[in-house]
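Hi,

I'm pasting everything inline rather than attaching a file, because the server keeps stripping attachments. The sequence lines come first, and each chain or strand is labelled.
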Amino acid sequence: MLQNPENCAVVRTVGYIGGKWKPIILVRLLNGEKVRFGKLTVQMPDISRKILSQQLKELEEDGLIIRHSYMEKPPRVEYELSELGKTLIPVLKAMYDWGNQIAAPEHKGTWDPIVR
Amino acid sequence: MLQNPENCAVVRTVGYIGGKWKPIILVRLLNGEKVRFGKLTVQMPDISRKILSQQLKELEEDGLIIRHSYMEKPPRVEYELSELGKTLIPVLKAMYDWGNQIAAPEHKGTWDPIVR
DNA sequence: AATAATGGTAACCTATTGGTAACTAACACA
DNA sequence: TGTGTTAGTTACCAATAGGTTACCATTATT
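And the predicted assembly:
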């Protein structure tokens, strides 16, 4: 997903967190907790498991999140922000604040909604 | 381009500035000046004129930029941030700063580069 | 008469993204 | 024995995003 790593800062940022789902996934991890795959599918019912798993893999490859896989049956996998991922908090916070600003008050969100 | 206007602030923000080119276009307008279509094509040689024109139209429809068309021959068209667009400055600045942070020092950008 | 300049648009094509349904392994429980 | 659970993957297809090339109108310049 990373493209054109040189030249322009915004191009770089878009390379990491561009796309429809990545910022939304990252916001689910903002509070620092580890979150299970299944919980993410519940919080984001409009993203298919295939795409979610794909996006999580890219985020992990780019070093923004860490995947913890416990060798249990049935399996348990948890995701959390990496240290690099935590440096994105100001970006995600700015996006979150802007989206709230422009919303009608009754639509203003919380940090833990079901995302549609 | 606007999708799911309710429920989640980040989903809303991505609806406005998601996509490969929109944040990059908006950064070209950050300084408040009116910029001609042709200058944008020079600053962003990797975006085709068709896509640039398409994205500018969407940004205008979403109220983030203003299109000034002067009835001259050959034509002159200028774009600038709207008041709503200016409220995005913290978001764009955060994206720009993050992209610079993670770059090797020799790749750190200026506010007026050719974007690749 | 031809060429350049501007800000596009139309037709067409490719690439990426997204969606659905079925399948897996290994264990727990009824 | 059969069902449920988890975190996926695979195969297949549809939709969307992005890209390429050619073309337009109008005027000035060569």
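The mean pLDDT of chain A is 87.

If the labels don't parse on your end, tell me and I'll reformat.
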